[in-house]
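ugh ok fine here u go
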Amino acid sequence: MQPSKNPLIRRIYESGTVTTPAGDTYPLNAAIPPDAGDVLFRAIADDRTVVKTLEVGCAYGLSSLHICSALAGREGAGHTIIDPFQNSECHGVGIHHLKSAGFDFFDLIEERSEFALPRLAERGETFDLVFVDGWHTFDHTLVDCFYGNRLLRTGGYLAIDDTDWPAVRRAADYFLNYPCFEFHSSATIPRTPTVRARLARQALRLLGRKTREGLLSRPADRRIHDERTHRLVVMKKKCADERSWDWHDDRF
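structure:
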């Protein structure tokens, strides 16, 4: 079912509130925006090979609802959620929403991701899509993406939310420069080019044609920096991660 047609998703966004299993109401202050949820939904819905998914950070469960809505009806579908604060701080709302929507193919791991993810890798688990929306410091995001890559099968997807946060964007840039990853899709909002960006474009226009062509022919710096603000980025793992032990990319 399309997220926009899911009555529970629509009701939550329209009301701006969530309700706990006990009937208490809280403001919707931790949720994936509708357009970002649609991008996440579409990445799964458009690829029928996506069956097993992993999510770091559930909170009130809007991203979980988008993921499970896309997985619904697929044989062997399974969604794993890592969220140490689901019951202690989020009052069990995310899991309550999934159950209310009729989804029963999910598991919750109430543990910090830096402990839970290595155990999943040690057990040999693999996933078709990994969604990272956990602790938003650079180091934690980097750890979540590192294990996300280890757990992701070739051909799968790594989705990172809140890439408009500087620390999260920095981590996303780093993984987007991996040879095994390519940009797939994103949710964006327009932004006004900075003065620095406008001056750089003007300077480029003033250069001679050969000089300009030489600069533009250099290897692309695959960062999510342009005239849009990317708040969710999906990248595809196009091949196995076979970097050498001393791999480094000077563009990052």
